[in-house]
Design goal:
Strand order of the largest sheet of chain B: 5-6-7-3-8-9
Helix content of chain A: over 70%
Strand content of chain B: 25-35%
Largest interface: A-B, 25 and 31 residues
Radius of gyration of chain B: 18 Å
Number of domains of chain A: 2
Order of helices and strands of chain B: EEEHEHEHHHEHEHEEH
Oligomer: heterodimer
Shape of chain A: globular
Distance between the termini of chain B: 43 Å
Structural class of chain A: mainly alpha
Helix content of chain B: 25-40%
Largest sheet of chain A: none
Number of domains of chain B: 1
Number of strands of chain A: 0
Shape of chain B: globular
CATH superfamily of chain B: P-loop containing nucleotide triphosphate hydrolases
Number of strands of chain B: 9
Structural class of chain B: alpha/beta
CATH class of chain B: Alpha Beta
Radius of gyration of chain A: 20 Å
Number of helices of chain B: 8
Distance between the termini of chain A: 27 Å
CATH architecture of chain B: 3-Layer(aba) Sandwich
Number of helices of chain A: 9
Chain lengths: ~200, ~230
């Protein structure tokens, strides 16, 4: 989520910033693994966070947010590959996610939406509506914390009744709440003049 | 542009089930309260005012516009505030959500930013401008929803139970703004008789039928008498 600031990254236009991160992500993902590559990528991330003025506390928050993703990826890879190979793969993913977070931390969503809409402009000839796709992206960003809130509500309701946590008993009410929310959101969009 | 709301022999059915029957009505009041039990048809009535629901029979006119035939035009004229503030937030941050209402109006980015800043200042949300909208309190979210509606400068604001999710202090704040400060015409759907009696006219629905309307104090008194 955007954090206001006046750093070079904050002032950089959204389009070039997105392109730069995409190029870096591709390089980090596709280049042959080497200690130098990973060390360079980690230094790049560290430098990026220091440059934004958000610093190490923000980097720590982002890393804490990734802990479950790391765990889910680490276990199967450590079992089926090897621990060093798993560590390399996970480092690549974490670095790419942290770089992507740098974009969202330093770019207003409306600027990102405009950049995505401009990039998708040529697809108009194929019947694609770029502004609709851009709106969908921004609504996805808005809705993630809402759905997370629903998940907490369902879990608390189950705990309050002393019901043991069961996947189906968790997923079904969560889906119902999400669908109801999407209905309400559709009404809100219509009321605000979006067809 | 007139400020009249006219319903002519309007009925609404959902999947063959009648939810509003034979409604004929002319309203020209500034503050209109709509009361009634759950499922009485009051939200359906409110939703017809900006074309969220279209009548199965009959004709609706809002400020001279037919919402069923001219939905885009009526939505520029009629703002809608829902009861659940969470379900009205479209964009991630407060300023972006308010600015979203001005998209497609041919305004430049600086013009939008200036109008958003003025609107946020009016609602006391300037400090939260860059905050994630979902982190606001319930009352602040409802203020944000109002701000996002009023920045389009509608002639009529429809509020469907706008205080239902709020605590007492925030309810008073939102109700005070809607009923006392806002210059626009207002249709407020409410279960709170204290809000209804502050309006200029009250409508009471029951099982899809308008059963009473007129002076709000008298309408609310008859409603409460029947509830005893």
């Amino acid at each position: 989520m955007y954090r206001p600031g006046g750093s070079v990254l904050h002032r950089m236009p959204a389009g070039p910033k997105l392109l730069a991160v995409m190029a870096l992500a591709l390089t980090i993902s596709l280049a042959p693994a080497s200690p130098w590559l990973l060390a360079g990528a980690a230094a790049l991330v560290l430098g990026g966070y220091l440059l934004t003025g958000l610093g190490l506390p923000e980097l720590g928050r982002q890393l804490r947010g990734l802990r479950w993703l790391v765990l889910v990826m680490l276990v199967p890879q450590a079992v089926f590959l090897s621990l060093p190979a798993a560590a390399v793969n996970i480092t690549r993913v974490v670095v790419v996610v942290l770089l992507a977070a740098l974009v969202t931390l330093t770019t207003r969503t409306e600027d990102l939406i405009d950049a995505v809409a401009r990039a998708l402009g040529p697809l108009r000839r194929l019947g694609v509506n770029p502004s609709r796709i851009a709106l969908m992206l921004s609504m996805t960003i808005t809705t993630v914390p809402v759905i997370a809130g629903f998940a907490v509500q369902v879990r608390e309701a189950q705990r309050a009744r002393g019901v043991p946590v069961q996947p189906l008993a968790f997923v079904v009410p969560l889906l119902v709440m999400a669908l109801k929310h999407s209905d309400d959101l559709a009404d809100a969009l219509t009321a605000r003049g979006v067809d | 542009m007139n400020s009249g709301i006219r319903f002519e022999d309007v009925s609404v059915e959902f999947s063959g089930r009648p939810v509003l029957r034979d409604l004929s009505l002319d309203l020209d009041h500034r503050r209109i309260a709509v009361i009634g039990a759950n499922g009485s048809g009051k939200s359906t009535f409110a939703r017809m005012l900006n074309g969220l629901v279209t009548p199965t029979r009959g004709e609706v006119r809002v400020h001279g516009i037919d919402p069923a035939r001219q939905p885009k035009r009526v939505r520029r004229r009629v703002g809608f505030v829902f009861s659940n503030p969470d379900a009205q937030i479209i964009m991630p941050t407060v300023a972006e959500d308010v600015g979203f209402s001005l998209r497609g109006q041919g305004l430049s980015r600086p013009e939008i930013q200036a109008r958003v800043a003025a609107a946020l200042d009016r609602f006391g949300l300037t400090e939260q401008a860059d905050a994630p909208a979902q982190t606001l309190s319930g009352g602040q979210k409802q203020l944000l929803a109002l701000c996002a509606v009023l920045i389009r400068e509608p002639g009529l604001v429809v509020a469907d139970e706008p205080t239902a999710y709020l605590d007492a202090a925030n309810s008073r704040r939102i109700a005070g703004f809607l009923l006392d400060e806002m210059p626009q015409q207002l249709v407020i759907v409410t279960h709170d008789p204290r809000l209804a009696v502050r309006c200029d006219v009250a409508l009471r629905f029951e099982a899809g039928t308008l059963v009473d309307h007129g002076d709000p104090v008298a309408v609310v008194a008859r409603y409460e008498e029947e509830q005893r």
